[in-house]
Amino acid sequence: MRGELCIGSASVLALISLILLIFMHVGQINTSTVPRGISMVNVNTSGYAAGLEAALGDPIAGLYATNASTPLQAMLGIRENYKFGLYSYCGYVNGSGICSNTSAATRWEPFSTIVADMRSNYSGVTTALITEGTFIDSDYLGEFTKGAYYLIIIGSVCVAMALLTGLLKHTVLFFLSTLFAVLGSLTLLIGATIWTVVIKKAESINSFIVGPSGAPVPLGITVSTGDALFLLWAAWACLLVSTLPYMIRCVHYAEQ
Ligand SMILES: *[C@@H]1O[C@H](CO)[C@@H](O)[C@H](O)[C@H]1NC(C)=O
Ligand SMILES: *[C@@H]1O[C@H](CO)[C@@H](O)[C@H](O)[C@H]1NC(C)=O
Ligand SMILES: *[C@@H]1O[C@H](CO)[C@@H](O)[C@H](O)[C@H]1NC(C)=O
Ligand SMILES: *[C@@H]1O[C@H](CO)[C@@H](O)[C@H](O)[C@H]1NC(C)=O
Ligand SMILES: *[C@@H]1O[C@H](CO)[C@@H](O)[C@H](O)[C@H]1NC(C)=O
Q1: Which of 60, 134, 150, 219 suits 143 as a labelling partner, its CA being 20 to 30 A distant?
Q2: Where is the signal peptide, in residue numbers (predicted)?
Q3: CA 170 to chain centre
């Protein structure tokens, strides 16, 4: 491959990777149009009232917040849908939502997050009812997702640096751009793997059964993967493919 063609394809791939990563990062920072749809993981609690009713044998009232602008974490009612991003999460009632404060290295702790929204007469029965599964293990989920965040941020910086150094014509910088692309591929791969594994494990809540043994019903809380994780995997794939032209160009110029 010609040097110019290599630099062109490597840079285009790195640029696509960077754009995908930017979209992944902004997910759930607020509820304005674009970030609203982008999340790492979603939790749907809309069936939980029915699950709780079957478990307790009493009608359930006041479990959900009816106003989308009700503050989060204030024991004022849970939201039907929660979407979690890398920096914050939003709770949605009937399609409109409110978001938490944003902070870097946010831990994904879905169970504590949702229980903190419940009125006190429901949080106790919920912690007594759901006693197994990774979903309730906030320490495990929090630690791993926090670690994954740092890997993803290192990977994102590497992608930007690979793109930048790859555009400048200098032998040492060509070597650096290859190094950044390889390092970025590695850290993004580990970060994406951690998130994928953690979500798969938390999804065990989807098949949790409650109610009398004669007539069991689903708990009604379901975990699903969000679009941001697919963006992360796509960004990783683009970067991985870009390492090839980066390497070829690196070798090509080293020989001259
Ligand atoms: C949540 O789950 C309910 C019942 O399974 C479903 O009808 C609803 O469409 C889901 N909401 C979203 C946003 O996926
Ligand atoms: C829990 O509290 C809410 C609001 O205070 C009330 O509407 C609901 O009936 C209570 N539920 C139970 C099972 O006590
Ligand atoms: C929801 O709460 C906000 C602020 O507290 C209030 O302005 C709004 O009218 C409420 N909406 C409904 C439908 O109650
Ligand atoms: C959700 O929105 C629909 C249509 O806009 C409305 O009929 C329904 O009452 C709303 N539900 C709640 C809980 O606000
Ligand atoms: C969000 O930030 C505001 C202002 O910094 C603070 O007053 C509020 O308590 C924070 N909310 C949460 C849930 O931490």
Answers
A1: 219
A2: 1-31
A3: 37
Q: Which two tokens stand for residue 216?
A: 């069991």
Among 134-138, 179-183, 210-214, whose mean pLDDT is lowest? 210-214
Determine whether the shortest distance from the Cβ of 171 to ligand 2 is under 6 A.
no
For residue 222, the 8-state DSSP code is E
Tokens 């285009």 found at: 12
Cα–Cα nearest to 246, from 189, 155, 162, 160: 162
First to last CA, the chain: 15
CATH of the domain at 234: 1.20.140.150
Residue 31: what pLDDT?
A: 73
CA distances from 162 to 7, 181, 205, 240, 245 (A): 11, 6, 40, 12, 12
User: Ligand 2 within 6 A of 201 CB?
Assistant: no
**Contact indicator for 174, 6 with CB cutoff of 8 Å:** no
Q: Please tell me the residue having the least CA distance from ligand 4 atom 12.
A: 94
Closest residue by Cα to residue 109 from 145, 70, 55 = 145
Taking a C-beta distance cutoff of 8 angstroms, is the pair 97, 36 a contact? yes
Domain housing 30: 2-255
- Please tell me the residue having the least CA distance from ligand 1 atom 13: 81
Average predicted confidence (pLDDT) for the chain:
91
Q: How far apart are CA 8 and CA 35, in angstroms?
A: 30
Which ligand 4 atom minimizes the distance to the CA of 66? 13
Is the shortest distance between the CB of 67 and ligand 4 below 6 Å? no
